[in-house]
Amino acid sequence: MPPPREQQLLVKAARLYYEEGRSQHEVAAALEVSRSSVSRMLTAARERGIVQIRINDPTGRELELEGELTARFALRDCRVGQTHGGERPLSRVGDLGARWLMENLHSGQRVGVSWGHSVQAVVQHVPEEPALDVEVLPLVGGLSSVDSSITGEELVRDLAGRLGGRFQRLHSPALLTSKAGRDVLLAEPSIRDTLDAARRVHVGLVGIGSFGVGSSAALVKALELSGDELAQFQESQPVGDVCARFFDTAGKPVPGPVDDRVLGISLDGLASIPTVAGVAAGLDKVPGVLGALHTGVLDVLICDRSLARALLDAR
């Protein structure tokens, strides 16, 4: 333990510098010591616990988890939201997603949007801009069989309105009851042109589903698969979906009756977009997000703390 006089001198230096906001030069003059001595005293005060520095991030981010996820999954960027008490993780993730989008979206760019509650949370947190010269495009058709408030068409219109930009519509459902019906719509010039434009966006914002959970489960149910078709699909062991495109735990696309009835961008098409940000919240999304991270589609992940930790703990 340092002598009491030395301890008192460290406390006095710390109070002058941290509490009164004096410069090191002013502290040196007050204590009649050199400036270099003040620097050493402040360092000693921190090392001995006299001074404890606490940093509060107003955006509520878990920087350490972000770094670990970025390194583990070779991401370009990652945002992990803190949650406190009864706070809903989806709201925190939506806020972080909106902040990320506004930091990375610039005038003259095009942004593609999928669908789902996670993407809806992001859109709802986007502040209204006076007029950002952007164009918003759907990455999948409308999903009338699922909650209309989270369909691609609704979210595209809402996001464009908040940004003061333009948007395109994809006048078709995302899910058809047959491959033939899907192919007929894909032959329509207006639909084909919109999907071609969606493949050329600068930024993609997509939700990540887990097989058998929430909207992902509703998606499969809406296809009205036969018993044999459902068995074939399940044999491929899907774990999640992005833009209604399912993949297995290794991130490989699941072909077959489900994929054949989706009208929207493919996983290969998503991978060609310069920056794709995936958004997810909750522990039930772990299998889907792990699979999505292995597809090679995602450049950015935005999630909550519990999901982040579970992803890092997964083998």
Give a summary of the structure in a few sentences.
The chain has 315 residues and is of the alpha/beta class. The chain contains 14 helices and ten strands. A seven-stranded parallel beta sheet has the order 1-10-9-5-2-3-4, with helices on both faces. A three-stranded antiparallel beta sheet has the order 6-7-8, sandwiched between helices.
Q: Mind summarizing the main beta sheet?
A: 7 strands, parallel
Structural class designation: alpha/beta
What percent of residues adopt helix (DSSP H or I)?
40-55%
Strand order, biggest sheet?
A: 1-10-9-5-2-3-4
Distance between the termini: 46 Å
**Rg over CA atoms:** 25 Å
The coarse silhouette is: elongated
> How many β-strands, per DSSP?
10
The low-confidence parts are: none
Mean pLDDT: 89
Beta-strand proportion: 5-15%
Order of helices and strands: HHHHEHEHEHEHHEEHHEEHEHEH
**Number of helical segments with 4 or more residues:** 14
Q: How would you describe this structure to a colleague?
A:
This protein has 315 residues and is α/β, with parallel strands linked by helices. The chain has helices at residues 4-19, 24-31, 35-47, 63-72, 89-104, 117-125, 152-163, 179-186, 189-198, 214-222, 227-235, 267-271, 286-295, 305-313, and strands at residues 77-81, 110-113, 135-138, 166-167, 203-207, 209-210, 240-242, 245-247, 275-279, 300-304. The protein has a seven-stranded parallel beta sheet, with helices on both faces. The chain is elongated.
